[in-house]
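@channel anyone free to eyeball this complex?
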Amino acid sequence: MTTYAGVPGVVETREALGETTLVVDPARLVEACTFLRDEHGFNFLSDIAAADYLGWGAQEVAGYIGTAAGRDLHEPGSQGHARVPEPKPKRFSISYHLLRVGEEAERLRVQVWLDDGETVASVLPVWPAADWFEREAWDMMGIRFEGHPNLVRILMTDDWEGHPLRKDYPLGGEPVRFSDED
Amino acid sequence: MAVIPSTSIYDGTRIPQPVPTILEVDPDAHRLEDILTINFGPNHPSTHGVLRLVVDLDGETVAGIRAIIGYLHTGFEKNMESKSWWKSVTYAPRIDYVSFHANELLYVLAIEKLLGIDVPRRATWARMAMAELNRIHSHLVWLGTSALEIGAISLFWYAFDDRDQILDLFEMAGGTRMHTRYVQVGGLAEDLPPGFTTEARKFCKSMPKSVDEYEAILDRNAIWLERTRGIGLLSADDALALAQSGPMLRSSGVDWDLRRNMPYLAYDEVEFDVPVYPNGDVYDRYKVHMDEMRESVRIVRQCLDRLDEMDGEPWIADDRKVVLPPRHELHTSMESLIHHFKIVTEGFTVPEGEVYVAIESPRGEAGCYLVSDGGARPWRVRFRAPSFAALQATATVVQDCLIADLVAVAGSLDPVMGDADR
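replying in thread with the prediction:
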């Protein structure tokens, strides 16, 4: 297993399920990514995946039978939680999945943590492929990437309100166009 | 052979600046008052769905372009968060509806990695056979539609005829022709039916001949060659920088295939070659697709041999907390009934954690990032869509194209809009 000593801005290194995660200080993300590309040969940005952890761990554990007002039949209980999950440092995580295309293939996850409203520098200068991935993260999660030259919505329409993959965005809550209620 | 070639198709990089996905009209090369901006799509028969290209034309030459996607955005990822793990499997094949089995397999592999469950080998080999059949299916759809778009209409009918035989095989195994949901967490939804390997062998016998016929139709066709050779160039370095994968990468000379370089399932136990072509044009992308179909038949044959040896072996893991109990037990065993009820109503739980799993789908690296909070529903599902990544290369590959080439080039990226827009 490769060691990632000397990568700038690393806060924590995790090994789980055969995958390595480097948690990086958001302020030094571009520095870390450039280092990983140039020194460790990660020439391929597979994906940028943002996740919203609002309400993480708020589910009660198994055995929960509802509030004083009674159980909501449409919310089937605990959904099987056996224990409360480990708390997360901040609301959003952005995971950059890197791949080394070469003789010694390897994957690496670089992760930064942000609160709502915080921004992170765009890695577009490091890997041009970040363009649409970052636009999608902005569109779906509302995370701003500083220095991205064209950070506009990509999947939703330009005048869409809200960021659908946030946990506080309701399922099925989208406005119905051309309906009588407009 | 080096993974990344030392020689390049063109000097330097052609990725536009400052936005890699937008080709702006160069005011030095074109008179701006001559530029005509047109919408190519979203409702155009040759955009493989609902891709919209805003094209700036100078005469017949493409001077600027940007791709606009999202017309088929369906919110799969959001929907899957609200379904239990086993119910959300149904969504995965509908994302990339042409390589349905690959997506389904990808999602289930990611869940299995979180669960740490052992899958019986018969299931693994059956999944592999299906995955390769699905690759041929996807390439046939690509071949038929792409050739149709640049005028070779007869090929469409031939390709779809062969495609139908693959769908027959899927129907035989899974009961439906597409979106089979044949892959179950822990193994397969059902065992392969008797006679499946016999039928599949018949297909393996006829398919290589069909590929030869397709090549006979196209390879000496002057119009086909004129319209595909030297068109839509992409160098190896640019392909990697733009996160291109699959046939896009291999046609630019990069010797990279996840099946061989980072094996999953049992790909390290089968023999196959990875076709690589050096020129990075539409023609080479076509050649990669053709060779891959032959290699897939080779893999399917090896899978069928192994499956025959494993006849009668279990096809799903014996883990009652995850896998539905056998149907016949429900009438006699209270325990089985309880397990069945719990899995169907509440769903099985998946340990807390995050994973990124990637497979070589027909379109390239299809990845799935999952986060579980330990409950019965996924906390976050994210698909790395190869079509999404492929469309990022649009502005790089169309440079100096004519408007007529645009159809050939856009087709050669092999985008499935369901995959790109999710």
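from a first look: Chain A touches chain B through 54 residues (CB under 8 Å).
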